Amino acid sequence: MVTNTRFTEDAIKYGTCANLHLLSWDYPKNEALKDRIDRLGLYPITVSTLLSNREKQFLLNRDVVLCRQLLKDKFFLDHLGISENRKTKILDEIGQLCNL
C-alpha cells in the first residue's frame, strides 16, 4: 500500500500483521517516499520558487512534471518567452534541487 501522506500507528500494525508492503511519506524509515525523492532528486517542477503558476501549468500541460525533465528539455522555457538571465536562474535552482 502506497500513500503520499502518513500512516497511523494502527495502520502500520495492521499492515505488518497482514503482511502488506507499506510505503508512505515517512515510512519505512530510511526508505520512505521523502527519502527516495531526496536520494534520487525526483522533485516536481511545482517546487520551483522562480516559476510562476502559469509557467508551471504550461509545463505540466506538456507532461513536464519533474525538474530533471525540464533540465533535459530546456526548450520548453523558450516557448514561455523567458529571458536568458531568468532561464539561467531557473535552471540553476532546479539543478541544485536535483543535485546536478
Give descriptors for this structure.
51% helix, 2 domains, single chain, 6 helices
Describe this structure in words.
- The protein is mostly helical and 100 residues long.
- The protein folds into 2 domains: 9-40, no CATH class; 45-97.
- Helix content is 51%, strand content 0%.
- The chain is built from 6 helices and no strands.
- It has helices at 9-17, 33-40, 53-61, 67-72, 75-79, 84-97.
> Average pLDDT, to the nearest integer?
94
How far do the termini sit from each other?
31 Å
In DSSP terms, counting alpha (H) and pi (I) runs of 4 or more, how many helices? 6
- Give the domain tally: 2
Number of beta-strand segments: 0
Report helical residue fraction: 40-55%
Structural class by secondary-structure content: mainly alpha
Q: H/E series, N to C?
A: HHHHHH
What integer value in Å does the Rg equal? 17 Å
Biggest sheet, open or closed, and with what strands and sense? none
Unreliable stretches (pLDDT < 50, length at least 5) are: none
Fraction in beta strands? under 5%
Principal-axis shape equals elongated
